[in-house]
Amino acid sequence: MTSSAKHHGIVVPMSTPFTTSGDLDEAAAERMVARLADHGLGVFVLGTTGEAPSIPAAQRERLVEIAVKTAAGRVVVYGGIGSDCVSSAIEMGRRYIQLGVDAVVSLLPAYYVLTPGEMHACLERIARDIPGALLIYNMPQTTRMSLPLEVIDRLSTLPNVVGLKDSEGTPGRLEAVAERFGGRANFAIFMGVAKNATRAFRAGFNGAVPSSGNIAPALWRDLYAHVRAGEWPQAEATQARLDAIGEIVQRDRSLAQSLAALKAAIASQGLCTAAMLPPLVTLGAAERESIRQAAAAFGLL
Q1: Cβ(223)–Cβ(238) under 8 Å?
Q2: Residue in 141, 136, 238, 143 with CA at minimum distance from that of residue 177
Q3: Residue 224 CA from chain centroid, whole number
Q4: pTM of the predicted protein model
Q5: C-beta of residue 16 within 8 angstroms of C-beta of residue 45
Q6: Using alpha carbons only, what angle is made at residue 200 by residues 76 and 295, rounded to the nearest 5 degrees?
Q7: Where are the domains positioned within the chain?
Q8: What is the tens place of the pLDDT at every residue in 165-224?
Q9: Which CATH superfamily is domain 3-248 in?
Q10: What angle do helix axes 255-268 and 232-250 make, rounded to 10 degrees?
Q11: Which residues pair with 24 in a beta bridge?
């Protein structure tokens, strides 16, 4: 199966549910994965939205097990392996492939600022040492580095590197990625900036990875259906509604704060608690109530 055949559509970076004592909430994780799969949306666990750097290794592995079992082959499941320790990333990648993920997703290590040559060497080693499909993840907000297209192009020639999730929103980046990688049978491109999803699909992207899929899965399902049907006015209208929903959790907040707000919105839907793991902070009751009211106004409750 080619990358474009298997790796496409809406893959939601799932928020990770925790108990108030900080353990993985396994029942909530099952509910959340099931809801995404029921809407035909792929599941990406242990990404930025999933608070991956804060989660102990054993709980990460358990979450992957739950996601694979609950999705039951209905949709793709990706597992994030971002780590400042390259050998740990490789170990996670090997294990998650054994557990049945469709691909692992690798960020750059973020502690050191790397040259393009160092970026390539690092990701090449990770790809070569993992016996399964790998997507490259460009996320300058967290790594403080932008992966050059030339580096991505070189990595794309590796047989198990099946695609790119690009979450860089700088002007012209979307178009440059589409021009360079669009239409390749064995290399899929995913838009990681939700507000750019429809524009990316128009440009030739294969998929999108929107965090608001955690709270509005039906709308993201509908958006992709419009895209597949070439119904661009309807896709744009759905995108506008999703952009407004995204503002519920993102407006005037940092990335860390927006993740806590997203968790509060999911909690208002009865799927999990609002608990965050340190160093992120759970929102207070007043702010959670404000988010609940905003979600209700959009018909999300």
Answers
A1: yes
A2: 136
A3: 16
A4: 0.96
A5: yes
A6: 70
A7: 3-248
A8: 999 999 999 999 999 999 999 999 999 999 999 999 999 999 999 999 999 999 999 999
A9: Aldolase class I (3.20.20.70)
A10: 100
A11: 18
